[in-house]
Amino acid sequence: MPQIQGHCDDRFTAVRDAFAANFAERDELGAAVTVLLDGHPVVDLWGGWADGGRTRPWERDTVVNVWSTTKGPTALCAHALVDRGLLDLDAPVAAYWPEFAAAGKESVRVRHLLSHRSGVAGLRDPHTLAELYDWELTTARLAATEPWWEPGTRSGYHAISYGFLVGEVVRRITGLLPGEFLRQEITGPLSIDFHVGLPEEDAGRVAELVQPKAVSREQAALFAAMEPVAIASLLNPGTGTAAANTPEWRAAEIPAANGHGTARAVASLYGILAGRGTLDGRRILSEAAAERVREGQGPCRDLVLGAGFTHETELGLGLWLSGPNSSYGPNPRAVGHDGAGGSCGLADPEARIALGYVMNRMGPNIADDPRKMALVDAVYEAL
Question: Which residue segment(s) compose the domain that 258 sits in?
Fold first, then answer.
């Protein structure tokens, strides 16, 4: 058993026990978890190893790629612009990005981007990793592509395209790529250790992602029944641990999938929503904007992930609702986002709770990794 470091309030001992059990029973390698209650840390734990060879201990300031948990911070950028009157969620995307109207997308609304309902779940033509690292090329190809379904009618997970779509709207309005806007407006002022496009000087404290030991039943079902739209969303280009461990991936601007941060940072960013727009006494979003993030856009079987899920899911404007399957705890209006392999950010304004969980042993599940769910269950057990 690795040594677990950090602190945990007595009331939340169950969370520490679940975190330790992840190492003992669920093949955890290196990980950290932070829980905020009313914006204050009541759990802040880390332990294990930052590399597969078990030569580097996981430290307090170890950062790791959190995959799609990045989508929450990217959504915050868009909602901050709504607050300033610079972005209208019901306006056509083409009002900000004229080229996007091509191929029948003139009616796509900004809210459709945030709720994965734009139909632009991925590119139809092959797109390489090297091309993905080229912001101008990737966004130009997305603007030119035809939607996979009638926009606004269904959700289909925009695994990689989400960050470029929302991010290009941010760039068209502000002149800044979303990673820089996030740094200037949110993470910098609040000293939150989260980066989309990791600075080179931080390379020495990044945890190495390690492949899962097995493919889950859910993943196998998804791969076996994969439709062209799912291939476009999830596999064009193919991304994985090998790519994510390279300097090129870490330095790139991929605001749906390559955020790097600590559990403390993830909890803080999602804590803005748990605090109804405030963190550490500072207002980042209006209360109305924080509430709007969890405005349900309608439940359905997701057109990309449906083969791997037996239930309907529902997206708000940037995050998933916990819903009847309790992905983010028993409050169906709690929101959050999982990252591939297991990471998670969670916000529950009613319980006044935010959670960040990060790890480097990739799990085999599409979502609701058993390690994450053990921690979520333990948090609510303690309340």
Answer: 4-75+179-382
